[in-house]
Every structure is written in structure tokens, then in C-alpha cells.
Amino acid sequence: CKSDGSSGDGVRNRKTDSDHDRDLIWREDEGYSHLVSRFYAPKRKSKDAKSFTLEEVAKHNTRDDLWIIVEGKAYDVTKYVQHHPGGWLPMVNMAGKDCTDVFANYHPARVYEKMLPGYYVGEVSDYEVSAFVQEHREVRQKLLERGLFETRLSFYAYHVAFQVALFSCVLYGVLCCSTYSAHMLAAVVLGLFWQQVAGIGHDIGHNAVFHQMKKDNLGGLVVGPLLTGISIAWWKRSHNVHHIVCNSVENDPDIQFLPLFAITEKMFGKFWSTYHQKWFTTDAVAKLLVRYQHFLFYPVMAVARFNLYVQSWALLFSKDRIYNRKQEMACMLLFIGWNVALLSQLPSDERLPFLLLSHAVAGVLHVQICLSHFSMGTYNGHAYNGESDEWFKMQCATTLNIATPPLLDFVHIGLQHQIEHHLFPRLPRHNLREARKYVKPLCEKHGIVYHEPGFFQANVELVRTLYRTAQLSKTLKQADGGFYESPLWEGLNAQG
User: Degrees (nearest 5) of the Cα angle 42, 46, 48?
Assistant: First the structure.
């Protein structure tokens, strides 16, 4: 059910007399808020449905035996793992756990009605919701009630127009100007163009623009492989996992950069990456590079984009199940084509400087991404084991915002409100600042970390984090396996 109205801030306000009915809950579908049933029973009543404890559900925590808990109900989703649009890794990372908040923030209302009932196996007898969890879930309900998940397409029309203007300046500088300085200025603008397009790519990858998978996937082909040369399928595969297990040493691919970087001493020694499906070890090369990582960070960010091209092609040529594989390959070939055509219009001695400068400027994006998490808390294994590491608290503990005046929001492409984005990933970028009005006071009320430094201070904190770990790397000693370990590694592995 849905009702229309308007609030003073110009955002739709939807209310009904049954707002507080315990059997009803606000959910989002295609960007619109709907007041729907909290639980949909299976059409065919299963004779096997019974009651389980949290401990019993937790035992079903592998890819081949995967149960989840949503709203106090247990679901056996093992058969769906290989078909999950977000990939199998997010599901495995939440296997055997309470997925209520994760599920709500990544799935539209229709999934609860059309898909979940078919996997229902029973009730969770000892499922409880703490006062704090109930309170932060009410924040999401307020956002939905106000209609803040609805995209204002004029916002994206403005940004698309701005990006068209940027690319037009690139074409003018390359095709209509003959001086070296004009060509290098065009390279700078091209880098800014890629950074700005990435903002829309990020939003559309979360289905936060059209809120319809087909439309967002189509738009993703344009702003992903065609305009930026980066596979949207690769981005989704990596980014979905990152959101679920943010700053987990073993599980978050967005902090696994050995042998170049180690943001915490927890990475020293040896650990298995569930995303990359390989061991990361602090070998002699890693020990050397990490020792100087605070000096290497910005130079590496200047060329980091080339790594994304490699990662994109590697996934598309893999045996993994990839949505729109052929279309992505075609778009990435077109990206190479238009870049080669653009470079061919320059004098031969200017092509390499143009290529490197444009990618270095686009590297600002990589710095922005790293700022969000590198200096924040890290942990081993999986979170969501209880009240201390539940969904809301973990997003705040591992993520920071960038204090930014509204006028400069476009510069940060939504990454300035990463806490709110991590809490509500399907919330359109233009409403993140509004969500902040609810999130920050809640954190202050309960003494929860809500870190929001300015851009330059965030850079200082990032470099300090890298420096600190670099200094600790000097104390590593070589183990029998050939890698370098620390006392912390010994403790975590019951050694020493």
C-alpha cells in the first residue's frame, strides 16, 4: 500500500493510520515507499517448518549449506546462492547470521513477497531485537516514510549535463587547440570527467538511480565500461562484498593491497582472502614496500586506474557467472577505441604525457575511496555476531565522512557521506545529507563513533595510519614459512 502527500521540504511524505501496526513495515521498491506486510508466509505450508535457535542456524554457514535470518525467520537459501545477482560471496559472508538489516538495505520490497517465502524453513525461537537496534531501524523507517529513497532525476540530469560539458572541453582542447599547455589542460579535464562519471557509476551500481535492475544495468554499461573502461560487473562483485564485510582483514577486497599497502598490523604474517581466494603473505617484497608505503601512497594512486582495467578484463575472461558479459566486453573495446582515437589526434611526443596526466588526475577518486576506510577500525573474520558488532555500529566503526559544505558536494560525488551511504546504500546521493540529520544525533546519543574530519585532515589521518603500520613492519621477524610475522599474528594463530 502507498499513500501520497507532501512535506515542507518538497519530499513526498507517506502516512497511513496503521503506521505503528507491528505486522506492517515500510519498504522500498523502485524508489517508492510502500507500507507492506512484515512477513509473507509460504503459499504452500511446509510440514517441515519448525523452530530453531540462533546457534542451530549459525551451523548452516557454508556455500553448500547456507541459511540466513530475516526478521526472526530462518531461510534456507542454499539453492539460490549461484543465482544471486550480487554474487555468492555476500551471501556466504552472511551465512548463518541475522541478515535483517543487510537484507533490507539491498533488496526491494517485492523480494520479501515473491522470493523469500519459498525458502522459509521456520521461526528462530530466541531471536531478540535490542532497544538500540530497534531505534536505528526506526531511522530507516523514517527515511522511507518521508519518501527519501525516491530519486530526483533532475539531480542526475544536472550532473550528466555537467559531465557532457567537461567532455566537450576535452574534445575542444585536443581537436581545436595546438599548444602543449592546452592539450595537457584537456588531460586534466578528462581526469575530472572520469572522476565525476564514477560518481554516477557508483550510484547506479547500487540501483540508487532508477531502482530497477534492468535500467540501472543498462546505465551501468554506459558510465562503466563505455565511458570509464571499468567493468560494472567487476565493480559490483567487489563493492558488494566490501559493503558487507567493510574493513575485515580476510574478507574485504578494498583493503587487501599487499604487497603495496597494509593499513593494520593485523595483515602481517599470513591470511587467506575469501574474495581473491588466495593467501596474502608479508614476504620480503611486501616488508620492503610497506616500510615506505606512506611515501608510495599518492604516486600509486596516480596510476591505480590501470589496475582496474586489468581487474575488469580478468573477471570478464574468467569462468565466473557474469551478467551482460558480451555487452561489457563490447563497451570496453569501444572505450579503448575512443581513447586511441583521441590520443591519435595529438603529436606523438604528447600522447604518453596526456595518458599519464589524465589518469593521475582521475586518481583523486582512488584517494577519496581510501580516505573513507583506511584510517578507521579493522577486524579479523566476520562481524554481526551480537550487539557489539551489529550492522549499524560496524558501519560507523569502519567508515568516516568528509566534512563538506553543500556547495562542494559535487566534488566529492557522494563519498563525503560514506557513513550514511554504508547504512543505506540504495538511498539516492542527493538525500544522504538529509539522512545525516538522523544518523549523527543517534550516534551522539549512544556514544557511537561518528568520525567526520575535513578533506585535508582525513588525508593526514590516512598517511599517519600508513606511517604507523610502516614503522611496525620494521619489527617483523622471518618465520619458517619464509614470510614475516608479528607478535599479533602469533597471538591470533595461537603461536609463540
Answer: 135
